[in-house]
Design goal:
Helices cover about 25% and strands about 25% of the residues. It is α/β, with parallel strands linked by helices and about 230 residues long. It has one domain: Metallo-beta-lactamase, Chain A. The strands form 2 sheets. The protein has a 6-stranded mixed β-sheet with strand order 1-2-3-4-5-6, covered by helices on one side. Strand 4, helix 3 (about 100-105) and strand 5 form a beta-alpha-beta unit. The longest helix has 16 residues, at about 65-80. It starts with 7 loop residues before the first strand and ends with a strand. About 40% of the residues are buried. The mean pLDDT is about 95.
């Protein structure tokens, strides 16, 4: 197999979700999930090929603005990297699907990586370390960006073309355009964030991803086989 043509995709961390599609949003539900250790951090996906690409950084308990929580999050992510034979300096690109702390909170440990986001996000935040990319732009062999707004106005996902057992497979690393399998099956978009953009646009993005991908890696949960919605 030629890794430059067929990158390898692996989840380093499966993100958790504090409210499933079937659950009502309530303080009690969130308190119980917190006691159960559900931190709400995003999934973290590694794409190995021409370059080592990390998609999102999996920051748990984002509401705990303490030095210890930040250190613990960094340790957890570095352990995930270590378990896969990697160090932070081995990551060439950190692709952030959108600007929520549970998806970018550990980015400070990657001192040598290039940080890629959608061009609208880069223009909105104007941080010197963020590089904006266009819709459809290829960031490595077999890896391209796909704008997927709805959850936020400037959300973007990655589409990866690879091989498994000599079969062509297309994987959507969706971020919160598809927050979990339960939301996908219910046709729901996560809209509890203060910067939520548009429900109908979000449904169109989710449908678009389901139509182009064989497998979807959601922002918070395990990968699942896609189907047209």
């Amino acid at each position: 197999m030629n890794n430059k043509l067929h990158p390898k995709v692996k989840m380093l961390k499966v993100g958790t979700i504090r409210l499933e599609a079937s659950e009502m949003a309530s303080t009690l539900t969130l308190q119980i999930k917190n006691e159960l250790g559900i931190g709400g951090g995003s999934s973290v996906t590694l794409i190995e090929g021409e370059k080592n690409i990390l998609v999102d950084t999996g920051f748990d308990y984002e509401w705990l603005d303490t030095a210890e929580n930040k250190k613990q999050n960094a340790r957890n992510l570095m352990r995930c990297l270590h378990d896969n034979g990697l160090k932070p300096d081995d990551i060439d690109i950190v692709f952030m699907t959108h600007w929520h702390l549970d998806h970018y909170g550990n980015s400070g440990i990657f001192t040598k990586a290039t940080f890629l986001v959608s061009k609208p996000l880069a223009e909105r935040h104007k941080q010197p370390n963020l590089v904006g990319i266009n819709d459809g732009e290829e960031i490595a062999d077999g890896v391209r960006a796909l704008y997927s707004p709805g959850h936020t106005a400037d959300h973007a996902s990655l589409i990866v073309d690879t091989l498994y057992q000599d079969m062509k497979v297309r994987i959507a690393v969706a971020g919160d355009a598809v927050i979990s399998c339960s939301y996908f099956l219910a046709g729901r978009i996560w809209k509890y964030n203060a910067d939520f953009y548009d429900e109908e646009v979000g449904r169109k993005s989710m449908s678009m991803l389901s139509n182009v991908a064989d497998i979807i890696i959601p922002g918070h949960g395990v990968p699942f086989m896609s189907f047209h919605i």
